[in-house]
Structures are given as structure tokens and as C-alpha cells.
Amino acid sequence: MAFPTLNDIKFALIRIKSFIHRTPILTSSAINQIAGCEIYFKCENFQKVGAFKARGAANAVMKLSEEERAKGVATHSSGNHAAALARAAQVIGIPAYIVMPSNAPEIKKKAVRGYGGEIIECEPNLMARETTLEKVVKETGATFIPPYDYMDVVEGQATCALEFLDDQPDLECLIAPVGGGGLLGGTALLAHYWDPEVKVYGAEPKGADDAYRSLKAGRIIPQTNPQTIADGLLTSLGDINFEIISRYVKDILLATDPQIIEAMRLIYERMKIVIEPSCAVPLAGLLANKEQFKGKKVGIILSGGNVDLGKLPF
């Protein structure tokens, strides 16, 4: 499997520059004191569409040929990828067809419509999502852009770590949350090219630990019946991302839901910023494994801030 090169990732950043924010890096001396290490937070919660997903979607859309662009793009997603793809399509003036389960949060549907995406609803199960998407692609000729298991998407997500290490070159470790693995895969790939000495970790909820189990088993173990507040990390690991993660990720850190909620609250209280539960998982994983990171300079990617403020867990 041929992965994107360092040059590919650098070109991706140039390609999507006008689509995205170069997000800031924040620190908190209070959190450093609690953690026993120096943490740098890359704030993708301030990204366009409120999440890192804007990067991969923009890169994939920008790489389409004129012929493909004319027919538009399609995906199935009930989360941040849906909004990210709708927005990327809107920016260059092409149609976006988004298959969403009927029980997807209204706030997510509103975001997709706000970016000009056309929503096609389906039953809330994977089979219905896939068959509905197949039908949409057949009828429209649109290009299917998957949320994470797609090389152009992984290449786009890797631009986050490229900015991070460019702005903060002395980091010793990087931690990213892992669901489908697009962000962690892209982060691990970039760090390997940039400086193989940088240790990359994934962070995952204990109630949805398929990446942890897959890494230990040396093969993909699909996610079954995940139970966690971190609703952005419920998907199974993608094949492309498993390949990258197996090679370049040192370990997956696990955190319980109470630990995730505690870390989320800590970021709200100490840093005064809005993050979603999935976004708190890396800090929760670090705090559950403090000894490993004692005295080190650690980079954490805060993946997104799309949270229903009426349903905060604290």
C-alpha cells in the first residue's frame, strides 16, 4: 500500500490553505501541574465546521477532476464529516449528497443544510446507510468520499500534525483520538517523516476499544456495540489507517467515561474553550498514564468542538 509522502502532505496543506484555519496551540500551566508534563493543545475545535474533518474533506474535493466535480460528491455520515464535505463542496460550487440516519441529531442536519448539502435520510443502521449511498451514487454519478478510510482524506488530516510540528518542533510525543483512524493515521505518518523520534499515541474510550484490541491482535477487530459518551469515536478502524497505525503508533491509551468527563471539564474550566467528549479522550488517556509522560513535552490534538450545550455531561 503506497502511503502519501511528506511532499504529498506539504502539497495538501498548500491545496487546502484557503479552505481552513491554521489553528492555534494553547497551553495551561494548571493542567501541566496536574499532568506532571508540558502539554501543548492544537485547537482543531476552532477549525472550520468545528473539527479537523474540514482538512480531509477539502483535500479530497480539491483533488477531483473537472469531470468528477461536475457530478458532485456523496458520503454517509451523521457526524462532522457530513458537514465538512458539504462545506468543501459549497466552497467550490458543486453538489453534495449526504446520506444521514433518520435519528441523526437535528443540530448535525442543520449544519449540513446550512452548507448547502442535500440530505437523504435512511434507517439508522450501517446496511441502510451503505445501500442508500449506493443508490445515490448510481443515480447522480457523484464521487463517494468516505469519512476516514480514504487516502486523500488521510493525507488531508495529516496536515494538522504538519502545522503542529512546524509550530512546535520540540515535541517528544503526540496524542490523537482514534475512531476510524484518519486523524491518528495521518498524524503518525507525518510524525514518522518529520522526526521518527516523536512517539505517537492513540487515545480511545474503554467502551469502544477496537483500535486498542486490533493493535494488540495484529489484525482488525471490528467494533461491536460500543458504549461511550465519546460519540465521535464509535466507528471501526479503517483498513488504510490500521496499516499506518500498526507501523507507526507506539500504543493506544484507554480512558473510562468518568475519566473522559473529568478531562473535558478540566479543559472547560481551565482553558475556557468548548470541546466535544471525543476531544477530551487524549487528555483523559494521558492523565490515566501519567508516569509514561512525566516531564515530557506532549502535543495533544483537540479534534473538535461540536457539542450540544444542552447536554453537557457535567
- First-last Cα distance: 44 Å
Overall pLDDT, averaged? 95
Number of E-type strands: 10
Architecture (CATH level 2) name of the largest domain? 3-Layer(aba) Sandwich
Per the CATH scheme, the topology name of the largest domain is: Rossmann fold
Figure out the total of helices: 14
Helix content range of the residues, please?
40-55%
Q: Note the run of SSEs as H and E.
A: HEHEHHEHEHEHEHEHEHHEHHHE
- How many distinct folded domains? 2
Percent range for β-strand residues: 15-25%
Q: Output the structural class.
A: alpha/beta
Key structural traits:
single chain, 314 residues, alpha/beta, Rossmann fold, 2 domains, six-stranded mixed β-sheet, four-stranded parallel β-sheet, 10 strands, 47% helix, 15% strand
Task: Describe the model.
The protein is 47% helix and 15% strand. It folds into two domains: 6-52 and 150-311, 3-Layer(aba) Sandwich (Rossmann fold), CATH 3.40.50; 54-144, Rossmann fold (3-Layer(aba) Sandwich), CATH 3.40.50.1100. The strands form two sheets. It has a six-stranded mixed β-sheet with strand order 1-2-10-7-8-9, with helices on both faces. Strands 5-4-3-6 form a four-stranded parallel β-sheet, with helices on both faces. It is globular. The termini are far apart. It is of the alpha/beta class and 314 residues long.
